[in-house]
Amino acid sequence: MANRKYIVGNWKMNGLRAQLSDIAAIAAIAANNEGADVGICPPATLIAAAAEANPGFAIGAQDCHFAESGAHTGCLSAAMLKEAGATYSILGHSERRADQQEGDAEVKAKAEAVHATDMGAIICVGETEEERDAGQAIEIVTIQLARSFPSGASADWLTIAYEPVWAIGTGRVPAASDVEEMHAAIRVKLGELMGQGSDDVRILYGGSMNGGNAAELLAIPNVDGGLVGGASLTAAKFGPIIEAAASS
Ligand code: PEP
Which pTM value belongs to this model? Predict the structure, then answer.
């Protein structure tokens, strides 16, 4: 079973150079909480400056194109992100699946591109509220996982984030029993998909995690960390989550 908790902040489309001081403050908190692995995924415009200013702190990207190069206006390749200083990328976030119509096959190709460039990948999966209300959450999420699953997967570079779409940015969090049930189902599916080593793949929970609920969420079996949006934007909000992870 994966042991060290992994806490990743997803800054989404937030942050100018003035906010680099927040990343420095978060990196300092992470350095004082060695019991957890911590990273921040700022907007792509800040990756290089954040990585240069905080050596040893894990800066990631929020997306990556699957192609090595070519006619893809506005997109960034894994090599570009790596050269800027990103060591991993979030892939298939529900906002990208909705806004950019990203499908599972594309997410799988992106994960393989990221791995080919020696970076880590955090693949996001999650159900909508309608799907949960219809009793389809586990089926939807495990199918999404299977279809997004990259070849050659190993815990060295692959992380899964379960993010119920209806919990993202809403202040709503599923019942602990529902999180436990979903993470257990994801663990079983990982076993089917990759066999040996599947127990070491970290499964993060994401969706309105904050300093007040992190300890409880992180204590749920098979919750190996958190993917955090709004509460990762300042050291004051993110610090307590990092501390909860380091002591859990
Ligand atoms: C996210 O978008 O990955 C996320 C978890 O956001 P929030 O923490 O704001 O719900």
Answer: 0.97
